[in-house]
Amino acid sequence: MRCSRRAMAEALPDLDLRVTPFRDGVAAKYLDGKVTAARFVEGRVMEVVAPAAPLRREPRPDAPLDTEALKGERVTIYDTNTEGWAWGQLAADNYVGWLPSAALAVPGPAPTHKVTSLRTFVFLGPSIKLPPVEAPPFGARLHVARIADRMAITSSGGHVPAAHLAPVDENERDFVAVAERFVGTPYLWGGKTVLGLDCSGLVQIALSACGVPCPRDSDMQERALGTAVNHQARFFEFEGGDLIFWRGHVAIAGGRDSLVHANAFHMAVVVEPVSEAITRIRGMGDARMGGEITSVRRLSA
């Protein structure tokens, strides 16, 4: 019998199945002794070769999108099916789910560069007049063999504008400024690219660009990031970069009187006055989302 994700979560309350590779009697080898499973699998490391790959809750294209894996990311695959889906765990944030097998390949050379524009293009040759063959998003990682004539040439022969890339170990300095680059991007539950992203995806992509490890979902971020500050204070006492949390939502303070966030009210990433956002979210609160601020987290300088 197939055991639902919710049923397993209720049976194993100490395990967060979003980041625990355990389902339907299959589990990662490192969980042996921690869970009961019919088989424990060592797993094999694969690389995301699509510009972005959906990670879904179930192995079907209409299943909820939990997050996205970007080009160059590593993922450990523990199971596959005959319909073209692979079940595994992302190396960057440990998220678990189903990815299209066609988006994965045996890992190539380690990435040397990352995309720093909101999106770039890969051309088959050195001319920008050629049709692009793919469009990797911000944060995607590539192996660059050499740079010539303002083009970065990848190990697979693709040509990418060098101005759109930076070495993988070169970090942004201001994650608020990174988040603000995405203003106007449509809201998409589970999204992590300029084609669409959600509130916690915006926080994760902005912090990751600055070299700060960040969990995927807002409740995980609230537990893991920064230090709690007094959120009973008036709004104008927020500092730029403070993370403001509600049930099911997170925003980034741009300063004392503004914040940037991806939200379903505007269906976009916006910058808006703090007072307006707080008042609206308080009025929209229900048992799962919104209501009063639950915490404000301040990252160390």
Key structural traits:
5 helices, mainly beta, single chain, disordered N terminus, six-stranded antiparallel sheet, 301 residues, five-stranded antiparallel sheet, globular, 26 strands, 36% strand
Structure description:
This protein is mainly β and 301 residues long. Helices cover 14% and strands 36% of the residues. It is built from 5 helices and 26 strands. A 6-stranded antiparallel β-sheet has the order 21-26-22-23-24-25, sandwiched between helices. Strands 9-8-7-4-10 form a 5-stranded antiparallel β-sheet, with no helix packed on it. The longest helix has 11 residues, at 199-209. The chain is globular, with a radius of gyration of 20 Å. Mean pLDDT is 93; it is low at 1-11.
Write the layout of secondary structure elements.
Layout: H1 5-11, E1 22-23, E2 26-28, E3 39-41, E4 44-48, E5 52-56, E6 65-70, E7 74-80, E8 85-90, E9 96-100, E10 104-105, E11 113-115, E12 122-123, E13 132-134, E14 141-142, E15 144-148, E16 151-154, E17 159-161, E18 165-167, H2 175-180, E19 192-193, E20 196-197, H3 199-209, H4 218-224, E21 227-229, E22 243-247, E23 249-253, E24 258-263, E25 268-273, H5 274-283, E26 290-298
Parallel strand pairs: 2-3
Antiparallel strand pairs: 1-2, 4-7, 4-10, 5-6, 7-8, 8-9, 11-14, 11-18, 12-13, 15-16, 16-17, 19-20, 21-26, 22-23, 22-26, 23-24, 24-25
